[in-house]
Write a structure and sequence with these properties.
This is EF-hand domain-containing protein. This protein is mostly helical. The protein has four helices and no strands. Among the domains are: 17-50; 72-111. Helices cover 63% and strands 0% of the residues.
């Protein structure tokens, strides 16, 4: 029985790095006894196997998110605070028949 064959390495990846960095990388690979392709494939495999890292959120993003939330809360709160007071006063004035600012039991039951 034959073992499963490894997938053929037919794709290439081009990267741009400074010449001194390339020279140092090639020397390191030679010292380690492996090709640059092997080193890069190992790096890519390790990177893909590692859990995804969340990108840290900047302070500016926190401030923007806070401002958006605050604006949304104000936009919802202001109309809801103003309208009940108007409708409450209008309802109260209808019930307060003698307009003394106090709702008697008789005025309340009359509604």
């Amino acid at each position: 029985m034959t073992a499963a064959r490894a997938p053929k390495k037919s794709e290439s990846l081009e990267i741009r790095i400074p010449y001194p960095t390339k020279q140092a990388f090639m020397a390191r690979c030679q010292a380690d006894g492996r090709t640059a392709s092997e080193a890069l494939r190992d790096f890519i495999d390790q990177h893909l196997d590692a859990p995804a890292r969340r990108r840290p959120v900047s302070r500016r993003a926190h401030w923007i998110a806070g401002a958006v939330i605050a604006a949304a809360m104000v936009g919802v709160a202001v109309p809801s605070l103003a309208l009940p007071a108007l409708s409450h006063n209008a309802s109260f004035e209808k019930l307060d028949a003698n307009h003394d600012g106090v709702l008697s039991r008789a005025e309340f039951e009359r509604r």
